[in-house]
User: What shape does this take?
Amino acid sequence: MSEPYDLIVIGSGTAAQVAIARVRERGWRVAVIDHRPFGGTCALRGCDPKKMLVSGEEAIDAARRMHSHGVYGEVRLDWPSLMRFKRSFTAPIPAKQARHYSDLGVDAYQGLARFAEPDRIEIGGRELVGRHILIATGASPGPLGIAGEELVSTSDEFLELESLPRRIVLIGGGYIAAEFSHLAARAGAQVTIIQRGARLLPQFDESLVGWLMPSFDALGITVHTGFTADSVRQTEEGLTVRATSPNGSQIAVTADLVIHAAGRVPELASLNLAAGEVAVDQGRLRLTPGLQSVSNPRVYAAGDAARSGPPLTPVSSHDAKVVTANMLDGADARPNYHGVPSVAFTVPPIASVGLSEADAHAKGLGFKVNAASVPKWFTARRLNEPVYGYKVLIEENTGVILGAHLVGPSADEVINLFALSIRSGLTAESLLDTMFAYPTAASDVGYMLA
Assistant: This one.
């Protein structure tokens, strides 16, 4: 017997939670399905647990930088203790989320969801009928397409390690590779990165990445750029990764753990989308500007599953608000990704919002660039931090801030001031007229714009 719902949500992360809360306020009958523990990637396997571990890394880094500057004694990072600290946050979430669904009057199902028909979802021998269906399944590591891929661990598995291996190889050069390499190296591992591209962190400004790279060198992280991983093989010495450059040069690196850090794709494979008449193109859902399936109007998507905007948690929440406005009121809402900040939580962090120089040139905009590496500024000097720099793009005729790129202490917080300015269309003059608390990292914004 089929059970009817106004909305069936597949996935239980940020997008799902926002959508469920909004439609329940209007009295809709809702079902939520997840084949993993309730809570989603960000809370259980991504942003939050990662940042919990980074807290230990930040403490170690601060103590080492201030060694002989008033701070004495050796400190070390104890991985099992740090992991227990992380689990003090993540472990209660699934049960807490299940209770929350119960309190909201939402039917929660644990298991793998599959379309049976355009309006029907199969789950654990049951069949649910949905007036609307929201795909909010998130993303998973994309296939590497190499021999021995089954020997490669995921970022999820790294965040659950009981003990830290002595030697680690990361395949890829984006957020995961940069963040995990810093964390693992500070915890005492010997780390190697194999990146197909010409540099690490291609999502960020090249100059600022260049200013950050000495921190990788200082941690003893070996970075091989311009090499594509060909295979992973189990040997007596460990897991051996072989990689080749375009000119035919080859390297072989042996480790105890190899981590997939080469990007994620929408998690759609198990949904049987063909039965749901949900169109897909090259692994991505075909959606209208309002995040509705072009082929099945009952179906919407949000967050990483939609892959309409940047793969970031605030985007998932924003997408859910757009989707629910369209479902509830027949609105023609569309997502607005203008001025969404992005941060790689290396130590120190690197952050970006708005246009890059290449983007601004491509749009034919006239703009000036304020940029400098400034480790002697007080914000960095008081922390004995050698990495600190900025690049800000300001439109010539209007004074509007087009983009901001930061690296160094508190970059992950200060970038939000630029995000607010860009999203609100504020001018550099508006920020220059703002009196920030001093001495804080935010007070440097005026110097970056002057």
Notes: Residues 149-262 form a domain with the FAD/NAD(P)-binding domain fold (CATH 3.50.50.60). The chain has 14 helices and 23 strands. The radius of gyration is 23 Å. The mean pLDDT is 97.
